[in-house]
Write a structure and sequence with these properties.
disordered N terminus; 4-stranded mixed sheet; binds beta-D-galactopyranose
Length: 428
């Protein structure tokens, strides 16, 4: 059933997002509490890109808790499908510009959030931290990432890890590769990819479009430059035109040579599907994969996971957070949503299903599935670096430029041109 709110999404979004986006918009409106007939005073319109699979399972967990905590309000699902917000971000930008903000929307902590702050599209929620007792619930470095000029603009729901490789134990077995251990470096990984090719696996490294390739590239830069030089790419202290960056991009090009030829057409979840169906040995993807495996009931023994080769001991993080949009619909209902998002129960209901770990520091690992327990331990002890693809280190505009360079590189594979485009994007 199409709700009144979603009809508005349709009309404002069509021009900008084309057919793929339209299909995505068509996926909206499921799971709302209301009985149709237009937006109601009680509706809390929640805008995300968690429309299916493990991502929707995570959202559903949070919604169940919201229903308990906020019985005076109803959840109105404004999700727009497409990994990493590939369609949603454009729809959201259009709606914000048209003066039609939802009650709350998801945004990444860090540079991406600053885009919305600078545009005056989100309200200061510092007082809510006091009201809900959140000042001490989150780690200080995360709060710093959400704070601009002493004000806090969103409430974090989780911490995700980007630099993870997921394997098929059965496929790796074909080439006598031990799936339980990460290759020590990108070079060692390439040697294993060669073994898989020799064993008859045509495209041993599965990848998807846009952000999935960007994540692969980031992981190679992180491995080859090390955490400090990698982080320096985003504050200008590392020269993006340097010879070491060129060499790393050369290795990224080699990795692309092992990927599926339809990589520019498929979603991250389809790339994971290649691994699960035994057509590929690996995919590099954030730990929302853990949730997808649960949703798809992939047995534990069928796969392993480890930090991307050469990034052992480094946790490349991103955090989803929820905002209070300026002049948004039903701000009181939105505040109730934000209270659930920040609460211990809300974080448990969400993160046990989403593959992420709670942003709060007071969670009990025993309440979480096996994957999240290992991520919680790593989060405590590893060196933490930001993700560009998921907004902790890069703005929305930078990511747009990088992804356009990524797709050109996927087609033309010219390292020098790619490096120039990347360096220009990082400077912008
Ligand atoms: C990220 C987001 C994650 C997950 C992923 C894939 O940007 O932070 O929660 O949804 O995209 O869609």
């Amino acid at each position: 059933m199409m709700r009144g709110g979603m009809a508005r999404y349709r009309s404002t979004a069509i021009a900008a997002i084309g057919v793929a986006g339209l299909l995505a918009v068509g996926a909206c409106g499921n799971g709302g509490d209301g009985g149709g007939g237009g937006a109601k005073d009680k509706d809390v319109q929640v805008f995300t890109w968690w429309a299916d699979g493990g991502e929707k399972a995570g959202l559903d967990g949070l919604v169940a808790q919201f229903r308990k905590d906020c019985p005076d309000y109803t959840f109105d699902n404004a999700a727009v499908a497409g990994g990493a917000g590939s369609n949603a971000k454009q729809v959201l930008a259009n709606n914000l510009q048209a003066g039609d903000p939802p009650s709350t929307f998801q945004a990444h902590a860090g540079k991406e959030l600053k885009d919305y702050i600078d545009a005056g599209q989100v309200d200061d929620v510092t007082q809510l931290y006091k009201d809900f007792g959140l000042d001490t619930a989150f780690p200080k470095n995360l709060i710093d990432n959400l704070t601009v000029d002493g004000k806090i603009y969103s409430i974090p729901a989780n911490i995700h890890r980007a630099n993870v490789v997921w394997t098929s134990t059965a496929v790796l077995k074909k080439a006598s590769i031990d799936a339980s251990k990460a290759p020590a470096s990108v070079d060692a990984w390439i040697a294993d990819l060669d073994k898989l090719k020799a064993a008859g696996v045509k495209a041993p490294l599965a990848s998807g479009k846009g952000f999935a390739q960007e994540q692969l590239m980031e992981a190679v830069l992180l491995a080859e430059l090390g955490p400090d030089k990698f982080t320096g790419l985003f504050d200008g202290s590392t020269d993006a035109m340097g010879a070491d960056v060129a060499a790393a991009l050369g290795k990224y090009k080699r990795l692309l040579g092992y990927t599926n030829s339809d990589r520019d057409a498929i979603e991250w979840s389809d790339a994971l599907g290649y691994v699960n169906k035994g057509q590929a040995g690996y995919t590099l993807m954030g730990d929302w994969v853990a949730a997808q495996q649960l949703a798809d009931k992939v047995p534990d023994a069928a796969y392993t996971y480890w930090p991307a080769p050469g990034t052992q001991g480094v946790f490349q993080y991103l955090a989803d957070s929820f905002t209070l949009p300026t002049n948004g619909k039903n701000p009181d209902g939105a505040k109730c949503w934000l209270k659930t998002v920040g609460s211990a129960d809300g974080q448990k209901a969400f993160n046990t299903k989403k593959g992420s770990i709670p942003a709060r520091s007071d969670a009990n690992p025993a309440d979480y599935p096996k994957y999240q327990q290992s991520a919680m331990a790593d989060w405590k002890q590893d060196k933490v670096v930001p993700s560009c693809a998921h907004g902790s280190a890069c703005t929305l505009g930078q990511n747009e430029s990088i992804q356009s360079a990524i797709s050109q590189f996927s087609a033309k594979q010219d390292v020098a041109t790619f490096q120039k485009a990347l360096a220009a994007a990082l400077k912008s």
